[in-house]
Design brief:
The chain is mainly beta. It has 2 domains: about 1-40, no CATH class; about 50-250, 3 Solenoid (UDP N-Acetylglucosamine Acyltransferase, domain 1), CATH 2.160.10. It has helices spanning about 5-15, 35-40, 245-250, and strands at about 15-20, 25-30, 45, 50-55, 60-65, 75, 85, 90, 95-100, 105-110, 115-120, 125-130, 135-140, 145-150, 155, 160, 185, 190, 195-200, 205, 210, 215, 225-230, 230-235. The chain is globular. It binds coenzyme A.
């Protein structure tokens, strides 16, 4: 029997859709034409108890049926007492929120856009994405702990935020050495470059840029910095950033 790691299970889970058509089972792989056609029909699933899906409209929370489709989002609950709170103004694209856990919460604030994959495989986790934040393609995988993303962030393609699924032990005492010591925190107006990876305990202050393919493994304290490399370090200070292309920005 082939053993899959939790990361592989998450990848397989999000990267294809099983669809039954007149008794014929079709497996549509992400990126294929079939996947794009079938995605809007992917049904939310609830295999637990007391799971809640809450839509916020003009600040008022309203609980809706879990099988009610939210455009661009597939939600799966496999555990109890989990809550997804999402503002109606969000515009998600092929996003998947997977609760393989109990007593956990995902909160998506106003005008969050783009493609977000959030998978929780431990109890008592929380994920919050702040107002107006955008992701081209971000996967957040939590086994424990929590993540908080601030407002106005811009996450590029292939961003991975992932906590440890297995234990690192002291060889003599068997004491666990890799418990998280801090929640993952990303401040306001942070730009994560393509292929950025964040591990447990990663913290990024307001107005920072994370360079392409960087790996953030710890807490940074100074805002307005470019942080880059693997492991990442501060490479530039006193910066900020804006959406337009550099040439357009200079000419405007
Ligand atoms: C972070 C970034 C914006 C910085 O650009 P910049 O301000 O022009 O910075 P510089 O090129 O002057 O680099 C400053 C230093 O950081 C280093 N550096 C920059 N990006 C790095 C990276 N990803 N990893 C390691 N070091 C990096 C440079 O080598 C340079 O080092 P030095 O001072 O020793 O010479 C750019 O490097 C980057 O990664 N852009 C993201 C691109 C991307 O993901 N685009 C997708 C669309 S959102």
């Amino acid at each position: 029997m082939k053993l899959f790691s939790i990361t592989e299970i998450f990848r397989l889970w999000t990267s294809h859709i099983n669809f039954s058509f007149f008794g014929l089972r079709i497996k549509a792989q992400e990126g294929s034409l079939f996947y794009s056609i079938l995605y809007p029909f992917k049904q939310n699933s609830d295999k637990g108890k007391n799971n809640r899906l809450i839509i916020v409209e003009n600040g008022i929370e309203k609980q809706i049926r879990i099988n009610k489709k939210i455009k661009g989002l597939y939600v799966s609950f496999d555990g109890n007492n989990n809550t997804l709170i999402i503002d109606k103004s969000c515009r998600l694209v092929k996003s998947n929120f997977i609760f393989n856990c109990s007593n956990s919460t995902i909160k998506i604030e106003k005008k969050v856009n783009g493609k977000w994959q959030i998978a929780m495989y431990g109890n008592n986790c929380s994920a919050a994405i702040g107002e107006n934040s955008f992701s081209a393609d971000t996967s957040i995988f939590l086994v424990d702990n929590s993540i908080e993303v601030g407002k106005d962030c811009m996450f590029s393609n292939n961003v991975r935020i992932i906590t440890d699924a297995h234990s690192v032990l002291d060889n003599n005492t068997k004491e666990v050495l890799n418990l998280p010591t801090k929640p993952i925190k990303i401040g306001n107006h942070v730009w994560l470059g393509e292929r950025t990876t964040l591990t447990k305990n990663a913290q990024i202050p307001d107005d920072c840029i994370i360079g392409i393919a960087s790996v953030i493994t710890k807490s940074f304290n100074e805002g307005h910095c470019v942080i880059a490399g693997s492991p990442a370090r501060v490479v530039k200070q006193n910066i900020t950033w804006d959406w337009p292309h550099p040439t357009d920005y200079r000419n405007s």
